[in-house]
Specification:
Pfam families: DUF3037 (PF11236)
Shape: elongated
CATH architecture of the largest domain: 3-Layer(aba) Sandwich
Helix content: 40-55%
Number of strands: 10
Protein name: DUF3037 domain-containing protein
Radius of gyration: 23 Å
Order of helices and strands: EEEHHHEEHHEEEHEHEH
């Protein structure tokens, strides 16, 4: 028998101003199967690698608070299922789930509710968790965070982290971009920036899109006068030296380097990264 399931992705957004989030859980309910369940990411290290300089206790506390709420509401839903499959008790279960996933201002919250059909809600919960949470940490966003952490270690070892801070640069009031390493002058103007860039995508088209996207962002910020100095892209390249991915990487990095205010270096080029940072 196919059961209709209501589910939502649980997201963690510690920096509201940037709008960046990580999928950290799934909550699912099926009234016809009398099933309620959830799964939450418990590997704090994965989240702290995604959000640079995040205090691990912030995630731990938010996760505990959200789990406590799911336990409380989940218990009431399961009790309602035990009382009746129809009528007031079933209606309460639906209401309680709606309360759990309703929009709210919090660093951990449930995204928009979705519906799916399945023979086995418990199995579907596991599948959804693997798809939306397990795989997200293999995406280019997560891998780019790893590149970012490497640059952070280089700057920290050279005691240069005080010069470069994460900034959200706002263009003409309609455009903004997050840059992890920005140097400001005394007037608060962005005069130098380092952008870690993951360009080792499996799909060459995605590699092109990501590289050109950041070229467009930097051009826009400079056109609006929000980034006046030089920009260094510290890049991670594909493993192979030949083939479609290598060709795409060469095209993108050549396009970046064609701008006289942009430098492109490997993520491991500590000497040039520090020379740029100290200038």
């Amino acid at each position: 028998m196919k059961h209709a399931c209501r589910y939502a992705i649980v997201r963690f957004m510690p920096y509201v101003e940037t709008g960046e989030f990580a999928n950290v859980g799934i909550v699912l309910m099926s009234p016809t199967a009398r099933f309620f369940g959830y799964r939450m990411l418990d590997r704090v290290r994965r989240v702290t690698a995604f959000f640079d300089e995040l205090d691990p206790n912030i995630f731990r506390k938010a996760r505990k608070t959200y789990l406590d709420e799911m336990l409380r509401i989940g218990t009431s839903i399961e009790n309602a299922f035990c009382d009746a499959s129809n009528g007031p008790s079933a209606n309460y279960a639906k209401f309680a789930f709606s309360e759990l996933v309703k929009p709210r201002q919090a660093i951990m919250y449930a995204d928009a509710e979705r519906v799916i059909l399945t023979d086995d809600p418990a199995e579907k919960l596991a599948d959804l968790f693997d798809h939306y949470v397990g795989r997200v940490f293999a995406t280019k966003a997560y891998q780019e965070r790893e590149v970012e952490k490497g640059i952070q270690r280089i700057l920290k070892a050279a005691e240069l982290t005080s010069l470069f801070k994460q900034q959200v640069l706002i263009g003409d009031d309609t455009y903004r971009a997050r840059l992890p390493f920005v140097r400001l002058d005394e007037q608060g103007q962005a005069v130098r920036a380092i952008k870690p860039l993951f360009l080792a995508h499996d799909d060459p088209s995605r590699l092109y899109d990501h590289g050109w996207d950041w070229l467009g962002k930097v051009r826009k910020l400079r056109r609006d006068g929000k980034l006046t100095g030089e920009v260094m892209f510290a890049v991670r390249r594909p493993d192979e030296a030949f083939g479609a991915r290598a060709s795409a990487f060469a095209d993108v990095t050549q396009d970046l380097a064609r701008e006289d205010y942009i430098q492109v270096v490997p993520e491991t080029d500590e000497r040039n990264i520090l020379t740029f940072a100290r200038h």
